[in-house]
Amino acid sequence: MKTDAQLQQDILAELAWEPSVNAGAIGVEVRDGIVTLTGHVDSFGEKWEAQEAAQRVSGVRALAVEMDVTLPGASRRNDADIARSAKNVLEWSTYWPQDAIKVMVEGGWITLTGELDWEYQRTAAAAAVRPLMGVVGVVDQIVLKSRPAVTPGKAEIDAALHRRLHADADRIVVGVSGPDVTLTGTVRTWGERRSARDTAWNTPGVRRVLDTLGVEPAPASERSGDSDSALHLDGEDDLLYQDGLSVGDTSLSWSGTDSDRHKGVPG
Hints:
Blueprint: H1 4-17, E1 26-31, E2 34-41, H2 44-55, E3 62-69, H3 79-91, E4 101-106, E5 109-116, H4 119-129, E6 137-140, E7 143-144, H5 154-165, E8 172-177, E9 180-187, H6 190-201, E10 208-211, E11 214-215, E12 238-242, E13 245-250
Parallel strand pairs: 2-3, 5-6, 5-7, 9-10, 9-11
Antiparallel strand pairs: 1-2, 4-5, 8-9, 12-13
C-alpha cells in the first residue's frame, strides 16, 4: 500500500499529466489515504477534471474538494446568458424529449429539474451543462419516472457484475428490496466501484442505488501494476459529498445543503 507521501506525488503527477487542468494552481494534501484538493481554478469544468484525475490514482480512499472556481473576466456570464446556453445544449440532445429538463441559474449555479426514464440520461444532462462558460456549479434535482412495477432480479445483477468484474464480483453483495438495490462489500479500485454502480443502475426496474462499497486496494503481492481508475458521483442516489468530503452515497451532480453550494463542493 502506498504511503501518504507516495500517494500525494502520484496525484500531483496525474494532475500535471491531465492537459485540461492547471496543475500549478491545485494543492494536494493526503492523510490516511484521504485526499484534499485545494486552490483556485478558472472554470467548473476544470474543477471537475481535477477531481476525476485525482480519483484515477490508485490508493485514494476518499476525496475532499476545497477548490474554488474563480472565473476570469472573459469567462464571466450573467445568469440569463448561462440559462440560455444550458437550455440550448439540452434541447440539442437526443437523449431525452424536448422540454423534459428545466433549467434554473442563480449566481452561476445551474439547477436541473424534471423527470427522465433512466439514470444514464440524468448523468448525461449534468455532463452537458458542466463545461459551459460562466458555470461555477451544477445541482442535479432530476428524478426518475415511475415505471410499471418490475422487481430487479438479484441473479441478473450478480451475473452482470461477474461479466464486468470477474473474480472481484465475489467481493460485492447485492441486496434487492422492491425497486431499491444496495451494494455492500469491497472493491479494489474506484473504477470497479463505478462499474458496479453502473451495472445496478442499468438493471430494469431499479429506482434507487445505495452504494456502500468500500475501496481497499489489492495488497502489493497481488498487484501487477498501479494502474487504476476512480469515480466521482453526485446527486440523490450516488456518492454523497458533504463539505467536499465523500461520506456516503447519492447520484449525479449534488446532494448537499443549499448553504454548502457556495463552499466549492463538487457538483
